[in-house]
C-alpha cells in the first residue's frame, strides 16, 4: 500500500530565508507525486506534480521539488520565502489505475519577519 | 461554476442526527472524490466516483457513511447518527480524467461539528 510521510509537523522560517519541506513516500513502482498548499480557510491548490522525466519540477509561486528515487523522497523547496507562503503543505502520492491520492499529514509553515 | 462548490460551509449538529453534505464539481469533470480532514490527521480518503462505474467505497469508516452521485454530477455525502468523532472538514474534489494523469481540484470544504 502507498504511504506518505511528512516528518515535520510545523516549521517556522524568516521571511526571505530558504525553505525545504520534506516528503518521503512508500510505493513499489514509479509514483505520481504532488504537492498541494492549503491557505487558511481555503481549499487545496496544486503547487506542482511529478509523473516522469526530469526529476526537478517547477511549480507555481516559485516552488520546486526534486524526485529522488534512491531516497524515496520528493522534497519541496523555495529559495526565498514570502509572508504569504504561510500555509499548510501536503505531499501526496498516486499510482496507476483508479486509486485515490494518498496524502501526508501536512506541514504547517509559519513565516516570521 | 468556475470551481468545486460545497455546501454548507459550516454545519453544527447534535450527536445522533443525520447530516447531508453537498458537492457540485467542475462541469465536465468525470471523477469526484470525498476526503475527510481531521486536525493533525491530514486528508483521509473516503469515496471515489468515476463516470458510470461503481464507486470505490473502500475509505468509508463505517456503514453510517454513504454517498451518491446523481446524473454524473452533484454528489451528496450522508452521515447517519453522527458521532463526535465525525467532527472534521469534509473536502470534495473533482478531476477531468482518471486520477493518475491529472490534478485534483478541491472545494473549500464543509466543516462539520458534532456536539
Architecture overview:
The complex is a heterodimer of chains A (113) and B (115). Chain A is mostly beta strands and 113 residues long. Chain A is 0% helix and 51% strand. Chain A contains no helices and twelve strands. In chain A, strands 2, 5, 6, 10, 11 and 12 form a six-stranded mixed sheet that branches. In chain A, strands 3-9-8-7 form a four-stranded antiparallel sheet, with no helix packed on it. The N and C termini of chain A lie far apart (41 Å). The mean pLDDT of chain A is 91. Chain B is an all-beta fold. In chain B, 0% of the residues lie in helices and 48% in strands. Chain B is built from no helices and ten strands. In chain B, strands 2, 4, 5, 8, 9 and 10 form a six-stranded mixed sheet that branches. A four-stranded antiparallel sheet of chain B has the order 1-3-7-6, with no helix packed on it. Chain B starts with a strand and ends with a strand. The chains are: A mainly beta (113), B mainly beta (115). At the A-B interface, strand 5, strand 6, strand 10 and strand 11 of A face strand 5 of B.
Features:
heterodimer; A: 113 residues; mainly beta; six-stranded mixed β-sheet; four-stranded antiparallel β-sheet; 12 strands; B: 115 residues; 10 strands; 0% helix; globular
Amino acid at each position: 500500500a502507498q504511504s506518505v510521510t511528512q516528518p515535520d509537523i510545523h516549521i517556522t522560517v524568516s521571511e526571505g530565508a530558504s525553505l525545504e519541506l520534506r516528503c518521503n513516500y512508500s510505493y513499489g513502482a514509479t509514483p505520481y507525486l504532488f504537492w498541494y498548499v492549503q491557505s487558511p480557510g481555503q481549499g487545496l491548490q496544486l503547487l506542482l506534480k511529478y509523473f516522469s522525466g526530469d526529476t526537478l519540477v517547477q511549480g507555481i509561486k516559485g516552488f520546486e521539488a526534486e524526485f529522488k528515487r534512491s531516497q524515496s523522497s520528493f522534497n519541496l523547496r523555495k529559495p526565498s520565502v514570502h509572508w504569504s507562503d504561510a500555509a499548510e503543505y501536503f505531499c501526496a502520492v498516486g499510482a496507476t489505475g483508479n486509486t485515490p491520492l494518498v496524502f501526508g499529514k501536512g506541514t504547517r509553515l509559519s513565516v516570521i519577519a | 461554476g468556475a470551481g468545486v462548490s460545497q455546501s454548507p460551509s459550516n454545519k453544527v449538529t447534535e450527536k445522533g442526527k443525520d447530516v447531508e453534505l453537498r458537492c457540485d464539481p467542475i462541469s465536465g469533470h468525470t471523477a469526484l472524490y470525498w476526503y475527510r480532514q481531521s486536525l493533525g490527521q491530514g486528508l483521509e480518503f473516503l469515496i471515489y466516483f468515476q463516470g458510470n462505474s461503481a464507486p470505490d467505497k473502500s475509505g468509508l469508516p463505517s456503514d453510517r457513511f454513504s454517498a451518491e452521485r446523481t446524473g454524473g454530477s452533484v454528489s451528496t455525502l450522508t452521515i447517519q447518527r453522527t458521532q463526535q468523532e465525525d467532527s472534521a472538514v469534509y473536502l470534495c474534489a473533482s478531476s477531468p480524467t482518471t486520477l493518475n494523469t491529472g490534478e485534483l481540484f478541491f472545494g473549500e470544504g464543509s466543516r462539520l461539528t458534532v456536539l
